[in-house]
Amino acid sequence: MSTALIRNPLVLAFLSILVILAAGEIISPGFARGDQISKLLTVSAILGIVAAGQCLVVIGGREGIDLSVGVMISLGAVLAGNVMSGSNGAIAPAFLVAGGATFLIGIVNGLGVTFLRIPPLVMTLGMTGVVQGGLTVITRGIPSGNAAPALMSFVNEPLFLGLPGILFIWALIGVLMWFLLRRTDLGYAIYAMGSNERAATLVGVPVRFIRVLLYGLSGLFAGITGVLVIGYTGNSFVSVGDQYMLLSIIAVVIGGVSLNGGTGNYFGVMLGAIALTLLQSVLTTLQLESWGRQLTFGVVLVLLMLLYGRSKRQRV
Amino acid sequence: MAPLLDVAGVAKRFGAVTALSDGALRVGTGEIHALLGANGSGKSTLCKIIAGAVARDAGVLQLHGADAVLKHPRDAERLGVGLFYQELSLVPQLTVADNIFLGHERTAPLGFLSARRKRADVTALISRFAPVLGDGFSPDVPVARLAADQRQIVEILKVLSRKPKLIIFDEATAALDRRQVAIFFDVLRELRAEGVSSIFISHRMDEIFAVSDRITVMRNGVTVASFATADTDQDAVVHAMVGDAPLRERIEHPRPANAAPARITLTSGTSRRLHGVSLSVGAGEILGLGGLQGQGQSVLLQGLFGAAPFTNGTIAIDGKPVPVRSPAAAVRHGVAYVSGDRGRDAALQGRSIFENIANATLVREKRRVFWPRQLKPRFEEALKQLNTKYASLDAPIGSLSGGNQQKVFIARWLATGAKVLLLDDPAKGVDLGAKADFFSLARGLAAEGAGIVFYASDDAELLSVCDRILVFNSGRITAELTGSTLTSFHLTKAAYGEAA
After folding, report:
1. Which of the listed residues A69, A156, A203, B430 has the most CB atoms within 10 Å of its CB?
2. CA of B327 to nearest chain A CA: how many angstroms apart?
C-alpha cells in the first residue's frame, strides 16, 4: 500500500475501526454482533454530533477549539431534563431551551475570541468554569430531571431497519454538514478563513461574523447532544458531559481535521467518532478503570498529532 | 589622511538575486554624505554591510584606514559605526529612556544599573529636540504611546547615545515634519563640527541638497557616480540615477478617449499615512502609482478596497458615491485587489485551485448555494486568459509555481468580472514570462473598459504599461506624468521631489 494512502486520514480511521472491531471480537466473542454494533453506533452518534460543532470551530482556524462543549452538554442535559420532566409533549421545548441556551453561550465564546482576541483555549476554558459553577449552584449537585419516554425509545429502541432513530438523525446531520461545507458560500468561507484569515478578508469574506457564528453552532450542537445524552441515560447530573470535551477533540483529529485549521471534513470526523467509541468499548471490556481510558485517549491524541503534525508546509 | 570609511568592489547575493555587484563609498571625517538610488539599487544592502548586519561576499571595507572584520553588528559598533534602523527597532513596552540605553545600560560601580546616570544622560540627549517633541513626550513614557514622528526621534537618540564616529541614517526623516527635520539637520551639522560623519539616505532631493557635503549615486547594485554637492545640481544627480536607460518598450495600445467615464474616483482620501489624495481612473485607463516604496501607494490601494478604510474622503464608482468600509463592499461593487505578497494576502494553502478562485465569485454574486460545475467553465476560461499552467481545478494550489499561483489569484477576480482593478505590485517576484502575461492581460482588460490602478516598485513596469503616472512622496501626490513626461528621468526626479 502506498504511503499516500496510509497518510489519508479517512483510510486510517476506517482501518482502525476494522482493527478495533476484530480485536474486540477476539477479546470478547460477540463484541461485533449486530445488536451490539447498533448500540455502539448510538453512542458514536452522540459523540459524533457534538464533534460536528467542534469540527467547524477547528476548521475555522486561528487555533480554534472549544473546550466548553463538555459542560454545555451537561447544561443541555440538565435543562432538557427539567423542561421534560418525563413528559413526551415537552420534547420539542426541551430541544429549544437546551439548544438556545448553549447557542448563546457559544456566541459569547465567539465574541470573546473574535473581538477581545482572547485565545480560544483560554476563552472556552474560562467559559467551562463559569458554566460548571452555574450548574452546581442551580442543581446543588443533585441529579435532576427526567427524560421523556418517547425520547428514550428514540435514542435506544430500534425504529427502522433495526436501528434507533438517533442514527438517522446523525446521518441527516452528516449530509447537512457535507452540504454546508461543500456547497455553500459559508462552507467555502470557513475553509478560506481557516487556511489564511487575511486572504479570506481580502476576498470579502465576513470573517468576524462567521467566527462568532461557528462558536455559536458548536454550542448549539453541544446543547442538542445534551438532550440526546439524557435520552440515552434517562436522567442527568452535573458532570454527565465532561468526558466529551477531550473525546470530541480526538474524534476531530482522528477524522483528519488539522488543528491548524482550513482542512478536513465531517465524514472523517464521523469515522473518528465511531473508531473512538469502539476503542472505549474495548477498553471497558478489558475492565480498564476510567484513569486507564483517559490515559489511552491522551496517548492516542498525542500519537495522532505526531503523525499529522509532520506533514510538510506547502510552498507559497 | 585616509578617509574614515573606504568601501570598494563590495558584492552581495541573496540566493539567485544579486543585491550588490560593485558597491563603493568613501566618506571623509566630519562629512555628511548622501547616498541615492532607485528602489532595489542596493543602497540599503550596502548600509547593512557597513553596519555589520549583513556579511559581504566580496570587496574591501576599511574603517579608520584599516581593514574591518565585521561579523556582527557589535563589531561595527565597536569600530564606531551606528545604524539608524528604517524598520523601527524599538521595544514598544519599554520607556523612552530604557529604549535609548537598551543594550548599553548606564551602570554604577559594581555593575548595578544607575537610574541617576540614565536620567542625566537622557535629559541631555532629549534637550536637543526639546522644542519639537510634541505632546506626551517624556523619558518615562512607554514607546507604544508615542506617535510615529516621536518614535523616530527616539530611534535617532538611540543611535546618538552610543557616540558613534560614523552614523548611517536610512530614511531617518521619513516620519518627521519640517521643524523636526530642521533640528535634525542642525544636530547633523553639530556632529560634523565634532568630526562625526553621517551617511544620509532620504527620498527628498531638497533635503539632500540642503544638508549633504557629498552625494554618491547607486544604480542596479553598482556605485555609478560621486559628486561634491556644491558642484552639481538635481538634474545631474537624477541622470546618474537613471543612467542611459534604453527607450522603454511600450505595450502599444490605442489611447483611451478623453471623455471616458470615470470608473473610480477618490476625493481627498485621508488616513494615517495618506494626506488628502484625489484621483480618478477612466474606463480603459491604466493609472500608475509611482515613487519610492512606502510613500502611500499600497495604503491608497488598500483604502480604495476597504481593507484599510480612509478616515476621510469619498469614493465614487461609475459616478455613484459608495461607502467602501470593507473588502466585501468593494468586491460587490466590482472592485478587485491583487497583492504582490501572495503568501500573506492571497494564498489559501492546502485548498484546491477551484476554492482559491471561488470565494471571490461567491461574495460578489452573493451566491448562498452553488454546485461547482456551474462555476468551473468560467474559472477555466479565466485561467486560460492568463496562460495558466495547471493540471486540474481540483489540484492543490501549492502544486503550482509562484508565477502560476499569482495567475490564479488574478483569475479569481477575472471570474467576478470586476471593472476596477487595484494592483499592488502584482508582479513582484514572478518570472518574466508571467510578467508579460499579466501586462498584456491588463491592457486587454483596459481595452474592454476596465479601470486599472497599478502600483509597481519597479519603474520599468510602470513605464511600460501605464497611460498616466501619479508620483507619491510622503503620502501625497507630488507629480502627474503623462505623454512626453512618461520617462524614467521624470519619474525618478519626481519621486525625489519636494513634498507638495
Report:
1. A69
2. 5
